[in-house]
Amino acid sequence: MPASEPAAPRVPAAGHHRDVNGGWLRPAVFGAMDGLVSNFALMTGVVGGAAANSTVILTGLAGLAAGACSMAAGEYTSVASQRELVQAEIAAERIELSRNPQGELAELAELYVARGVEPELAAEVARQLTRDPDQALEVHVREELGVDPNDLPSPLVAAVSSFVCFASGALLPLLPYLLGATSLLPALVLAVLGLFLCGAVVARVTARSWWYSGLRQLLLGAGAAGVTYLLGWLIGGHVG
Hints:
α1 runs antiparallel to α2 (about 55-100), α1 (about 25-50) packs parallel to α6 (about 155-180) and α7 (about 185-200) packs antiparallel against α8 (about 210-240). It contains eight helices and no strands. It has helices at about 25-50, 55-100, 100-115, 120-130, 135-145, 155-180, 185-200, 210-240. Residues about 1-15 and about 20 have low confidence and may be disordered. By secondary structure, the protein is an all-alpha fold. The protein is elongated, with a radius of gyration of 26 Å.
């Protein structure tokens, strides 16, 4: 290429874009982060109330079990309800396609026209895409509902994932006590490392730097633990 000729601009490949939805990473990390923050704060509050180590361990185990089960139940109900709603809408769309195919064809063509396609071309594209009944249903569901009828979320997978991720995060500050620790310091060190690591990993699906995300999550988790420790210290003296 001659030196005077400008280089052609480099067009990034589609695979070079960020995962703007976060995929599996975001819910997994946030589930673990939720378990870590909530259980560490719970245990810190009990320690602030001058509870015995056995009470701290029992509180941590109860917080892990209750939180993980609650997260799993909530995720299962939420995803199942969403899936049932989408399936009901798909069934309604299937009925409309059988009762009024021409009207649905015109509706699909209008969607493409609204996106800038010429009316004649939009009508032809809509006609070709809806020649097969199954494909017609899939196209209408994708365009009108914005979902893939062949890739609906699984309530069971969501529940199990939430349970495992929350329990993993909640176990981290509890682990030193289970291994014989007699003070909050080892749990504090693990919680600090876990909070910073979770925040840094979240940076993979954001535009922030890893140290900013890690430090932000560390400060938020430390704030939650500090508040519960103070409450435990204030209330524990009166209750004791």
